[in-house]
Structures are given as C-alpha cells and as structure tokens.
Amino acid sequence: xxxxxxxxxxxxxxxxxxxxxxxxxxxxxxxxxxxxxxxxxxxxxxxxxxxxxxxxxxxxxxxxxxxxxxxxxxxxxxxxxxxxxxxxxxxxxxxxxxxxxxxxxxxxxxxxxxxxxxxxxxxxxxxxxxxxxxxxxxxxxxxxxxx
Length: 147
Ligand SMILES: [Fe+2]
What we know:
Layout: H1 13-35, H2 40-64, H3 71-94, H4 100-132, H5 138-141
Helix pairs in contact: 1-2, 1-4, 2-3, 3-4
Bound molecules: fe (ii) ion.
C-alpha cells in the first residue's frame, strides 16, 4: 500500500488531489489481489482507469510545470508510463486464456512495477514542480534528477 505523507506532497493542490486518486486506485487493485476478490472485469476496469486517468492527469500536470527546470524530464517520464502501460493493457487484452493464478500473478507484477514507478516519479520528479511554483523549498526535495 502506498500511504499518503508529506514525502509525496508537491504542495500544489490540484496535482496532489490527482495523485491521491491514482494512489487510491493502485491501492484498491492491491487490496483486490491480497483479498482474493480480483476478477478479469475488475482488473480490466482498474487498468483502463490507471491508464486513462493518468494520461489526463499528466496533461494537467505538464501545463502546471510549463517553464519549470523539470518540465522536459517530467514529460518524458509521463510518455514512458503511457507507452508502457498501453503495452501492458494490449498484452492483457490479447491473452484469452486466463486462469486464476495467471491473472493474479500478472496483476501482481503490473501493480508492483507501475505503483513503484508512480511513487518514485512523484518523489523524485513531481515534487520539483512544487519547488518551481514556490510551494516547497529546494532543500526539502533534494537534487533534481538527471535529464
Ligand atoms: Fe509527473
């Protein structure tokens, strides 16, 4: 589970609210996996949401970050998420022979990889947008990542 804390806050209300939605949905997927309530339909809905909502959110965030020293890196990282997640979604749709174990193993792998990406991205990149917009102090977020 990803827990919301000061460490993931950008200090920009619109961005933080949207990050909370993404985190809530990654956590909900994890809960379904852990509690054994995951089905093909639930997984499909979660994947679609995590792809489409993230895409919408990235556009908003990129507009907020215009002119920021992190803007280009942020955009490239978003591009990776959308491309990679689209591939995963296509892989999911192309598979027609899902067994219970295969579905759970695949969901676990996707959840682990993509929720970890989100967490790293928010902490290492998005928080610099907070610095650009005067919401966080540079010393609170550490050095800017390599371009
Ligand atoms: Fe971002």
